[in-house]
């Protein structure tokens, strides 16, 4: 295997990014999904490699006038079903291997959701909380310019992810449009409504997670009303999931953010908590609650646990401490494959991320369609269309799980690989 040297002399493998735990976890899922449907091994082999990995240098003049150079990435995994689609993440732990894994998950997610998209993902290795607004804007614009030749409304459509938001997408859209010479609103999704964004996009991921949670309760003959919830992560996904669950009568007993968690066995008033967070920037210290750690939240005895933060928070090292009867994955890959199998054997129902957090990309798809038509829908129409698509995807996977006697993650992968296989076989291989 080829090796190269970094400036510090450290040898790195030219394929080191293909050994990142998140990507290996995605590969395991693809292989298992392929086995369930007895997929063509040639198709599975193609699905196990990204089509294109882009690494860019992102020099930024900081507020002190010194130039700092960040590493940026964009991975275009597979475009069989349509343009590449996936978010842009700003986080200090971003690396090429993580972005490859996330792009593979986006390919799987877009396929199982029935969307006309391939899988992509991007990111910059940076702690965005340490940047001023000007620095973040300059970094975003330079990154957009660097990946500009590879993106476009019909090529690759970025969206927000961890550390990015509608404002970030506005800067990306403007930069791309300036370089093209005319407005290209469809180059990104997750934009502010005023410049071509869709109503309902901001809370779509959390709402989609609650829609599939409701559907899961229906399938097991129970009601979500009065059920106890613990939600790890109180960012865009977690806060909206908590709010929509609360509005439907669920008892949200615990939530958390990067500073820690809070607990109230009688249930938290999520509307009041959201107002508290606007002022205090954290859930910690909310009245009528006791402080707990993020880890302690995972081990609470609740009906539904929703991990909505980062990946691999539940693995083989802590899986035996999980007491929740149902897990709905709001984050990407919060439960590892091995942990999933252990929990499934204990009767824990897991709604996998590729369905549970699919609401964001579904409404991103709606935004892209609306931009292309220059015709926009009201929020009720967006939410109704979202529910129809995400519940349909859940039902397909649930049926597959029952027919093949596998867990929901394996079933979702099987549905995804089946759709990809059919499309790839119909398109054939170029050149022969």
Kindly describe this structure.
There is one protein chain. With 432 residues, this protein is of the alpha/beta class. It folds into two domains: 13-29 and 37-184, Leucine Dehydrogenase, chain A, domain 1 (Rossmann fold, 3-Layer(aba) Sandwich); 204-351, Rossmann fold. The chain is 44% helix and 18% strand. It is built from 14 helices and 14 strands. The chain has helices spanning 21-36, 41-47, 96-112, 133-147, 166-180, 204-219, 236-247, 270-280, 294-298, 337-345, 353-356, 359-373, 379-404, 408-427; strands spanning 3-5, 11-13, 52-61, 67-78, 84-91, 118-125, 156-160, 228-232, 251-257, 260-263, 290-292, 304-307, 326-328, 349-351. The strands form three sheets. It has a seven-stranded mixed beta sheet, sandwiched between helices. The protein has a five-stranded mixed beta sheet with strand order 3-4-6-5-7. A hairpin with a 2-residue loop joins β9 (251-257) and β10. α13 (379-404) crosses α14. It is globular and about 55 Å long.
